[in-house]
Amino acid sequence: MSRIQSxxxxxxxxxxxxxxxxxxxxxxxxxxxxxxMHTMVKNGADMIExxxxxxxxxxxxxVIQRASERAxxxxxGLTAVLNMVKEFRQTDxxxxxxxxxxxxxxxxxxxxxxxxxxxxxxxDGVITVDYPPEECGDFVKELQARDIDPVFLLSPxxxxxxxxxxxxxxxxxxYYVSLKGVTGAANLNIEEVSQRVASIREQTKxxxxxxxxxxxxxxxxxxxxxxxxxxxxSRMVQTIEASNDDNLLHNVATLMTELKTAVDAAKK
Length: 268
Prior knowledge:
Layout: H1 3-13, E1 18-24, H2 33-42, E2 48-51, H3 62-73, H4 78-89, E3 97-101, H5 103-109, H6 111-121, E4 125-128, H7 137-144, E5 149-150, E6 153-154, H8 160-169, E7 174-177, H9 190-201, E8 208-211, H10 217-224, E9 229-232, H11 234-241, H12 248-265
Parallel strand pairs: 1-2, 1-9, 2-3, 3-4, 4-5, 6-7, 7-8, 8-9
């Protein structure tokens, strides 16, 4: 059983929803990333989604686009991200780490090499936004052979037949994108999300995480009541962007505490 699967099992037994914050590796500076990861765990993160900086992040809105730009200024690429995970693992062997990124860096080194390096770094899951499930069967096999969970995105427009295809390849959990749009979009309709999550659960026993559009404690609590995981990205990155070296960790810790309190309160 992978760390991701084990974490969801434990949380379910406790009657809790997972909180998964997202940050872009290398933002605002590579020296901060591992400390940010530990700070998020200390203040309530059950898993961490770690973004791999990319020059053309098509699924991301302006906030995370700027984060990638800041990281790329410092030449943070896939190798640097994997090294950050290795450093994190020196003192944290428990928290699942999920890489989120795009196919180009993986294609540049090859799926087998990537899977080997991700395993060596002790990565637990991989989200590759622009790998369609119809074309990444070999990549999925490479990951699963190394006990790394391929996590796929589902959207409000994903048809039931395609949901079947996606969940047949996924493991760990599936990630429901709650909005038609990019990360950071507004106007989360919790009733629509609830109906869609219920529909997805009819087609898979995998946990369902929900992200995109969760921007404060209120939306986190509402989402936690209906999902197995709440993913918070743009709001985390906004907090990082608005901070400086002196208050960065404090500000992230404060936000994490607010979100964790809301998520835990949802099912009490």
